[in-house]
Design goal:
single chain, 4 helices, Polyketide cyclase, alpha+beta, START-like_dom_sf, globular, 6 strands, three-stranded antiparallel β-sheet, Alpha-D-Glucose-1,6-Bisphosphate, Chain A, domain 4
Amino acid sequence: MTGAREGSRHVGVWIAAAADAVYAFASDQRNLERWAAGLADPALADVDVRFAPVNDFGVLDHVVTMPTGEEVYNPMRVIPAGDERCEVVFTLRRRPEMSDEDFEADARAVRADLETLRGLAEG
């Protein structure tokens, strides 16, 4: 049975760049600290990020393993929309223990990361 506070929100941005270029940049773990502020936080130095295997479908799903051993699955896609345009969508999952404020803060952080990714990809 689903808890009253569980749910998902799709956070997306449109990027004026080719989907394959955005996918290549975003899937390269060496670039994470440039666009994923939450994962670049020195307090999270002990986290492990594991992306889905390289694929032709723009799937950037990844699992973040926290220092506690907790694994957080994050669905993410780069969706082509023409030669020089794509949409990047991150599905934010709300865990039952999250307050409304925490969920909104997570959504704002994800949007900020995706906006940073857009700036880098379009730059």
